Amino acid sequence: QEQVVESGGGLVQPGGSLRLSCAASAFTLDYWAIGWFRQAPGKEREGVSCLVTDEDTIYYAEFVKGRFTISRDNAENTVFLQMNDLRPEDTGVYYCMPIGTYYCSDQLSRWGGDAWGQGTQVTVSS
Q1: What pLDDT digit, counting tens, does each position of 73-112 carry?
Q2: Exposed, middle or buried, 50 (CB in 10 Å: 0-12/13-18/19+)?
Q3: CA 23, CA 26: separation in Å to the nearest integer?
Q4: What is the Cα–Cα distance from 114 to 124, expressed in whole angstroms?
Q5: Which residues of 99-108 are buried (b: 16+ CB within 10 A; e: fewer)?
């Protein structure tokens, strides 16, 4: 796995939007899928969305379908997570992580991870 750096979190009111960015290396984007995960205090980490860069494969967890959109900009070696209609239950620390292609599916939450970064805090509150 190669290093990734996530950014773009912040404080937003319910119904608002944020766009998270995951900066990766060209090598990472060539050989790995990119997954977005989140973790709320006292809860387990859960998979949110992922994208396979060498295939037309995208996965969304049920709780974000219709609200979040994952995309990529290969020229900038960046994967984005556009989050719309945010809800208080979306609050948590969001992480991006290179993952094996197999896990970019309903298996996303089963990716164990070995080198989680600091993440970016998303807080949805009125």
Answers
A1: 888 889 999 999 999 999 999 999 999 999 999 999 999 8
A2: buried
A3: 10
A4: 28
A5: beeebbeeeb
